[in-house]
Amino acid sequence: MACIEARALRKAFGKTVALDGIDMRVEEGRILGIIGPNGAGKTTALNAILGLTPYQGELHVLGRDPWRERDRLMRDVSFIADVAVLPRWIRVWQVLDYVAGVHPRFDRAKAEGFLAKTTIRQTSKVRELSKGMVAQLHLALILAIDARLLVLDEPTLGLDILYRKQFYDSLLNDYFDRSRTIVVTTHQVEEIEHVLTDLMFMDRGRIVLHCSMEEFEGRYLEVMVRPEQLDAARALKPLHERQGLGRSILLFDGRDRETLSALGEVRSPSIADLFVAVIGKQPGQAQGAAE
Question: What is the CATH number of the domain that holds 9?
Answer without folding.
Answer: 3.40.50.300
